[in-house]
Design brief:
About 40% of the residues lie in helices and about 20% in strands. By secondary structure, it is of the alpha/beta class. A seven-stranded parallel sheet has the order 3-2-1-4-5-6-7, sandwiched between helices.
């Protein structure tokens, strides 16, 4: 299967890039992935990071890197047009299974739509078809709109793989399929 991963990658944030290697390792080992398209801020930066660090972070790195294809997210000049295309399903990734994840996937500590609303706004087809997985941390909701987002999004996820017990306990109230997984960066640091 071909799939699409969206998270906070390619922004030159070392912690998120360490998580990236653990997330792709988990996805490729747990699902039958032929190609994994990863949305990134800076495609050249991520190619450079993969080249420099794949051998260090992943055993059998060629197996993983052969399946990874970077997709640059919204170009600055036409950012709104890019988002409209995604929301209308005018991309080649429209029907692919989606993975959303990294550090904090859903949190109201960030401004909307970066609190998780962008998932709902841009990937409504996947939400409706229940063709997505959330991977990472989910913060407790403090705002009414976040409670609403969680009630709408979490029960529809095919699977929820959470990196800490607090997130797992919280999410199991919305979806009993939530499972606890160690922080994704740990699996690539430990050899």
């Amino acid at each position: 299967m071909d799939a699409y991963l969206r998270g906070y990658y390619g922004y030159k944030n070392f912690g998120d890039e360490m998580l990236f290697f653990g997330v792709i390792k988990h996805i490729i080992e747990s699902y039958h992935i032929d190609k994994l398209y990863v949305e990134v801020e800076d495609e050249n930066w991520m190619h450079q990071r993969m080249t420099k660090n794949a051998e260090f972070c992943l055993e059998n790195a060629r197996f993983y890197t052969a399946k990874i294809y970077f997709v640059e997210n919204a170009p600055q000049k036409r950012k709104w047009m890019h988002y409209i295309k995604i929301a209308l399903g005018k991309t080649p990734y429209k029907k692919m299974y989606k993975f959303f994840g990294g550090g904090e996937v859903l949190t109201d500590e960030r401004k909307s739509p970066h609190d998780g609303r962008n998932i709902l706004l841009l990937f409504g087809l996947n939400i409706r078809k229940r063709a997505f997985t959330l991977l990472g941390g989910i913060a407790p909701p403090r705002k009414v709109r976040t409670h609403f987002l969680y009630r709408l999004l979490l029960p529809r996820a095919t699977s929820l793989i959470l990196r800490d017990s607090a997130s797992c306990e919280l999410v199991q109230k919305y979806n009993p399929k939530a499972t606890l997984h160690e922080d994704f960066a740990l699996s690539i640091i430990r050899k």
